[in-house]
Amino acid sequence: MKSIIDILTFYKGLGVEYMRSINIHTKEDIFRQLKQEAEHCRRCELYKTKTKTVFGEGSFDASLMFVGEAPGKDEDIQGRPFVGRAGKLLRQLLDDVGIDKNDIYIANCLKCRPPANRDPLPDELVACFGFLKKQIELIKPKVIATLGRYSTYELTNQKAALGMLRGRVFDYHGIAVVPLYHPAYLLRNPKAIDIFLDDLKKIKSLLEQ
Ligand code: URA
Fold first, then answer.
1. How far is 42 from 169, CA to CA, in rounded Å?
2. Residues lining ligand 1, CB < 6 A?
3. Which tens digit of pLDDT belongs to each residue from 3-22?
4. What's the predicted TM-score (pTM) here?
5. How many structural domains compose the chain?
6. Assuming Cys at both sites, which of 20, 33, 76, 171 could form a disulfide with 113, CB separation 3.0 to 4.6 Å?
């Protein structure tokens, strides 16, 4: 490999007298910066009551991105998405259909927990959307699986009941979006697990196409 001196000497020989330095930001750098921005964000009131910001987790080059609603109690304590019962069920079901957990990224619409797990407010969703948008732009997944009605509405603009939308394929700036039931719903309605597994199999085949 040539040293920087060799390279500069080569260009000097060509008559180049001045070179401007440029900063090359890697995806990791940009994610780190964005995470820090989210940790200091005051665009809505949730920063006042959160414990930790839950920015997102997984591979920055993931083929599949999951988008949930908002951190719950366990996520708020640990600063990591889907670490509670719903998350454990999600990971188990991914294993059941053979989706590679190293090739996923998990984020939420809201990066801070709403008090007592109340539903996200419209203003909070709008305030936080910029972070999710940027995460999607950087990762450029092949498929986004939206978990529950909030992320489904944000990325598909569809307001129909999830029962009508789940398993269908929508488009978000050229990325396939497949709405899924939220894993917390599956905990309350275990009969819907088979439907969820069918939808995950559909996602798996989209990833393999
Ligand atoms: N529910 C969500 O929507 N997101 C989490 O991170 C945890 C539970």
1. 34
2. 68-72, 75, 81-82, 84, 86-87, 108, 184
3. 778 877 888 888 888 777 66
4. 0.89
5. 1
6. 76
Beta bridge partners of 107: 67
Amino acid sitting at position 207? L
Atom of ligand 1 nearest to the CA of 183: 1
Does residue 36 form part of some domain? Answer: no
Measured from the Cα of 69, ligand 1's closest atom is: 3
What's the domain range around 71? 43-208
Q: Is 26 exposed, middle or buried (0-12, 13-18, 19+ CB in 10 A)?
A: exposed
Q: Which of 60, 51, 207, 83 is nearest to 137 (CA)?
A: 60
CATH of the domain at 62: 3.40.470.10
Torsion angles phi and psi, residue 175, rounded to 5:
-105, 135
Q: List residues bridging with 65 in a β-sheet.
A: 105, 144
In a domain, 65, yes or no: yes
Please answer whether residues 86 and 184 qualify as being in contact, where contact means their C-beta atoms are separated by less than 8 angstroms.
yes
Residue 7 lies in a domain: no
Nearest to 64 by CA among 111, 99, 12: 99
